[in-house]
């Protein structure tokens, strides 16, 4: 490793000058820090310094060695490169020029298991590693994102001033301005929390899409009318960034056709993988993340555009009929969206609690909700209520059991059920809203038909079952056919 004694010039180095990296550099520099930058395609460094970075406290470098040489100790290097092999390649390129005690930060959308692997490998070399979730897109990176750091806690005091300076700010309950950035936890906790944020984002976007579908098909609302509906909703319990931009989207007109721009965009959604990772983590932890899973699969189904066009000519089903009670229906759809949103967050927080227990993390769930109050894509007024719920009961096992949210679900229930049932009758797919309602009804059911399922498993596979009249943890087997004998396959996992 390098052992030079220069004091350095830059407060932090950043590798990767794509949109997020470039805007984050400008954000850091605007807070009074000097930033050294490096990009694998070095011409990008020169272009940046001749353009948006001109005249600013930004030092361009053309190699990892040069980058390390201009950094103050302990060196702080942040990577904003594509998740996967690119991160490993970047680490391999910069580590030879770092010293024990230096800090390496991954600010990309990395899988938390990869972060834990890298943290352990770098710790053996004395390098402190931080896996940092950064949310807010290019605008957030420039003006103030939500930042979720985790990993080697000894590195937090070194990066805290920079991170909290550049993060989005919100007003606390006592009027203080607080940054949407705080230490999340050890290991891959920072990237895991960002992953769950993205999963909830999938859910929110799908739910908003379903509300749009229902309003469009059953009320025939035009784009200007839809703008008015979502703008009004953004003044109430649904006040959030995603509702705000949805209202704005309906105002945009396509320059070529004169139609609302949203109507000329192909209905085939893309995804980058964090939603799928969230669902994978849910299955690993046996957490019923049904709404977010449906949101992921809804994107997969939307991508089958050609097959859907063919199926529309073959498969029978009802054609949606218009409803006459315009304002009542709009209010019902608002409640269906609101109630489903509560379920989405409840499932997301349940997943974080399960992974925290499995990994030995001590997460502050109310604090995490506050990290998402500003800067990030799912920012909303709603998140303050989540903090209050965990303040009331830090050991709350599920958000829907909090008195406030239980009451809100009860208040929204009539409209929620009306929208889901009518959508089913009219052939309008609402997978996220329907799965949210099914989860709610399943969770509030003291009895479910899983007893029959266990009987079936024991019948064909001798998987055993528990009895209602015996203590939990005692397992039984029945020789259902008289030919199966007494041998069992062992107990089952709940």
UniProtKB/TrEMBL annotation:
Active site positions, chain numbering: 194, 201
Gene3D superfamilies referenced in this protein's UniProt entry, alphabetically: 6-Phosphogluconate Dehydrogenase, domain 3 (1.20.5.320), N-(1-d-carboxylethyl)-l-norvaline Dehydrogenase, domain 2 (1.10.1040.10), NAD(P)-binding Rossmann-like Domain (3.40.50.720)
UniProt keywords, alphabetically: Gluconate utilization, NADP, Oxidoreductase, Pentose shunt
Binding-site list for NADP(+): 16-21, 39-41, 81-83, 109
UniProt keyword NADP, yes or no: yes
Source taxon at top rank: Bacteria
EC number: 1.1.1.44
Reaction catalyzed: 6-phospho-D-gluconate + NADP(+) = D-ribulose 5-phosphate + CO2 + NADPH
Record has NADP as a keyword: yes
Pathway noted in the entry: Carbohydrate degradation; pentose phosphate pathway; D-ribulose 5-phosphate from D-glucose 6-phosphate (oxidative stage): step 3/3
Family matches, as Pfam families: 6PGD (PF00393), NAD_binding_2 (PF03446)
Domain named 6-phosphogluconate dehydrogenase C-terminal: residues: 190-481
Single GO biological process annotation from the record: pentose-phosphate shunt
Molecular functions (GO terms): NADP binding; phosphogluconate dehydrogenase (decarboxylating) activity
Binding site for substrate: 109, 135-137, 197-198, 202, 272, 299, 457, 463
Description of how the protein assembles with itself and partners: Homodimer.
Family named by the database record: Belongs to the 6-phosphogluconate dehydrogenase family.
Role, per record: Catalyzes the oxidative decarboxylation of 6-phosphogluconate to ribulose 5-phosphate and CO(2), with concomitant reduction of NADP to NADPH.
PANTHER family: 6-PHOSPHOGLUCONATE DEHYDROGENASE
Protein name: 6-phosphogluconate dehydrogenase, decarboxylating
Organism: Thermogemmata fonticola
């Amino acid at each position: 490793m390098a052992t030079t004694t220069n004091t350095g010039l830059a407060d932090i180095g950043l590798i990767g000058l794509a949109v997020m990296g470039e805007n984050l550099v400008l954000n850091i520099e605007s807070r009074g820090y000097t930033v050294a930058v490096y990009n694998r395609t070095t011409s990008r460094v020169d272009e940046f310094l001749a353009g948006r970075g001109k005249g600013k406290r930004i030092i361009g470098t053309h190699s990892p060695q040069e980058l390390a040489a201009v950094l103050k100790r302990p060196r702080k290097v942040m990577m904003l490169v594509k998740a996967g092999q690119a991160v490993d390649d970047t680490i391999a390129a910069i580590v030879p020029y770092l010293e024990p005690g230096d800090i390496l930060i991954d600010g990309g959308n990395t899988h938390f298991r990869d972060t834990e692997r890298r943290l352990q490998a770098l710790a053996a070399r004395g390098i402190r590693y931080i896996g940092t979730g950064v949310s807010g897109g290019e605008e957030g990176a420039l003006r103030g994102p939500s930042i979720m750091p985790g990993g080697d806690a000894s590195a937090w005091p070194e990066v805290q001033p920079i991170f909290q300076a550049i993060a989005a700010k919100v007003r606390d309950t006592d009027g203080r301005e607080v940054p949407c950035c705080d230490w999340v936890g050890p290991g891959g906790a920072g990237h895991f929390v960002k992953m769950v944020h993205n999963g909830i984002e999938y859910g929110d976007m799908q739910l908003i899409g379903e509300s749009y579908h229902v309003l469009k098909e059953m009320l025939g609302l035009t784009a200007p009318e839809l703008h008015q509906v979502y703008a009004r909703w953004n003044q109430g319990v649904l006040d959030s960034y995603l509702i705000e931009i949805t209202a704005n989207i309906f105002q945009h007109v396509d320059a070529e056709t004169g139609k609302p721009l949203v109507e000329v965009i192909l209905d085939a959604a893309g995804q980058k993988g964090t939603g799928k990772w969230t669902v994978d983590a849910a299955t690993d932890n046996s957490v019923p993340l049904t709404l977010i899973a449906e949101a992921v699969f809804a994107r997969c189904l939307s991508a089958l555009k050609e097959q859907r066009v063919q199926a529309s000519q073959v498969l029978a089903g009802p054609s949606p009929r218009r409803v006459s009670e315009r304002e009542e229906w709009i209010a019902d759809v608002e409640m269906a969206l609101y109630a489903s949103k509560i379920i989405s967050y409840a499932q997301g927080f349940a997943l974080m609690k399960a992974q925290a227990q499995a990994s030995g993390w001590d997460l502050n769930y109310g604090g995490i909700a506050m990290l998402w109050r500003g800067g990030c894509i799912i920012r909303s007024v709603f998140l303050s209520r989540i903090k209050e719920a965990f303040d009331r009961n830090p050991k709350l096992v599920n958000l829907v059991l909090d008195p406030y949210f239980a009451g809100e679900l009860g208040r929204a229930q009539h409209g929620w059920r009306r929208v889901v049932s009518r959508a089913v009758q009219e052939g309008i797919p609402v997978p996220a809203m329907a799965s949210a309602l099914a989860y709610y009804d399943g969770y509030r059911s003291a009895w479910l038909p899983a007893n029959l399922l266990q009987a079936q498993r024991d019948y064909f596979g001798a998987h055993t079952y528990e009895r209602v009249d015996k203590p939990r943890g005692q397992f039984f087997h029945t020789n259902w056919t008289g030919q199966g004998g007494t041998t069992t396959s062992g107990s089952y996992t709940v």
